[in-house]
Hints:
80% of the residues lie in helices and 0% in strands. With 408 residues, the protein is mainly alpha-helical. It is globular and about 60 Å long.
Amino acid sequence: MADQSTARRPARPSAARRGSLLGAVFLMATSAIGPGFMTQTTQFTAKLGAAFAFAIVVSILVDVAVQLNVWRVIGVSGMRAQDLGNRVVPGLGYAMAALVVFGGLVFNVGNVAGTSLGLDALFGLDVKIGGAVSALVAIAIFLSKRAGVAMDRIVVVLGVLMIALTAFVAVSSGPPVGDALRQTVLPDRIDLLSVITLIGGTVGGYITYAGAHRLVDAGVTGPEQVVAVSRSSVTSILVTGLMRVLLFLAVLGVVSGGVALTGANPTADAFGHAAGELGLRLFGVILWAASITSVVGAAYTSVSFLVSFSPRLERGRNWLVVAFVALSALVFLLLDQAPTTLLVLAGALNGLILPVGFGVLMWVAARRRDLLGGYRYPRWLLVVGLLAWLLTLYLGISSLTGIAALWK
Length: 408
């Protein structure tokens, strides 16, 4: 991308810097808000009702703990996660890159599948045609002369659009907001599995690094940027959390009225009950926007794990991203497989990636001050990060069970 560099650069002009920070926030947020995000939120809302509010709040707090550390270590060091991995243990960065790229590819097939389902709901378009058209849209973004700026603007616009449309459906469904607020702190039921699932879906795999790597590529790095980087990391999770809350309220308003979501696509059913035919069309727009931004985020971030290994790869970066999107679409078209299976596999792989990469970053924060430009890492943040890392280990173990189940 035209505005990318792995080297430290002087502080950017304020407007460009703000644009990069906002782009990084929405790149991470919209990468997390994919088709799996929507399915998980709907299913848990239907299962737990208003008590799901507690799980959402807890998952947001853990996600903030993870992203605060990830963005700060990468942002202060000015190095991507795989480069830090190789500095900690020679060769580890290559292993991290392999995990992220493979998991990102599988996940991106599911994202392309999500775009096809969105266009099907919106226009009744054949799923294969919808997937191919959406892939071409993503490719066009990275073929533009200012691909980085184009990506930043598109993820912001589509991110705001998703939130606004979901808010409209949430109001239309008439959810019991008072009950949801009460159960945020005093839930009738605590479901640990839902909390763990939400965490893995929000900060697992390539999503963990999407925003932080964007800041490295844009040159917004170094100890002097720590406040802006930290604020952006929290904002990205709050944006994701806002979308989660709005989607939760939209579905809650439907299920609290006694409607059973028994169709093949429960989110579409919920939107249809909330706002009729308009709700179904809005669902198509939201699902397509969520999926296409996830296609962009997965391709961009996965390739960012490769380009630092060779100057030739860095020079051909945009073409690598284009090839990544094209391969994702090709696999989707050839497999003709149920998107749900692909999404489950992608989520399981993300669960494996998280504890490895996050562990490397926490080691750098605790023991490698030399890689942080002499920056003294806050002890309180180290403690918070360690506790979050222990939880990611549990996520990794759980994901092994998910992978094993797919082979049966």
